[in-house]
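Marked as duplicate of an earlier ticket. Keeping the data here for the record.
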Amino acid sequence: MATPITKITWALLPEPEKVLLWAVIILILPVALLTLLFAGPIVIWERVPIVTPSQAQIYVDAAKEVSESTKSPCDPGVTVDWQPLLAIEAVRLEQDFRKATPDRARELAGMFIERKGTCTHCIGDDPPT
């Protein structure tokens, strides 16, 4: 037969499912937080290009220059986006953007277009070139 103290103790204890849930939360939460604390910066370091604004401007200018070179009176041209250029160079340069040069950026941007011919006449009211 249970004593009154035992009955009171059992009455105050939560249900076994809740005890298990809290035990799992108490064990997993610190591990998850530590994982995020250490893994987050490592993933950012490996995956996000660390580039200064002046280095990024090299790729923005190269993309704009190559995009402008594809325009003609007959064709609006091709738009080269600078973000893929920056991502590709991050891999090629192994995140060391000190090696970045305008010539290298223009060369890479030029790989995003393909010349198929020249405009010798225009359709409509556009003047020929």
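See parent ticket for discussion. Residues 67 and 122 are 20 Å apart (CA to CA).
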